[in-house]
Input
Amino acid sequence: MDIDNISLVINFDIPRDQESYVHRIGRTGRKNTQGRAISFVSRNEVRWMKEIEDYLDKLIELKMRPLQETVKQYQEEFDKKINTKPVRKEAKGASLNAGILKLHINAGRKTKMRPADVVGTLCNIEGITPDDIGIINVQDISTFVEILNNKGEMVYQDLQTRNIKGRPRRVSKVIY
Output
């Protein structure tokens, strides 16, 4: 499997082949990202971990499982949290989102789009300041940007004829 953005790998058993182990835990650190790998190791598997350490020429931090007293100490608090239904919050979405228009731009990371490119283009529109720009989410082939302060329609109309990153881009409104 080739899955991006994995932040945690949990090994319930240790592969006998060091390369397999490295391949598994390497899923957490792909494309300049960081992650964590946790391996549950039985007494019988400790020697495999030592071989993996030798193979990697790195020390793997080992932690013992918590003592039964420690588990009991937190058990009541855990049970209380797990058995408590979350309190429903009042729906504030409509009032919070008043004055915000989310736009979709048909360019993303694969076309080298960066948030700075979007901000630069938007700030060149007369009447738009950085305070009018909300969250920018650059994905593989799309970019989403929130326009604040009831200026979304003006920005949308302007972007129909304005180049972004030197090229004409299709811009559309995101409808919820």
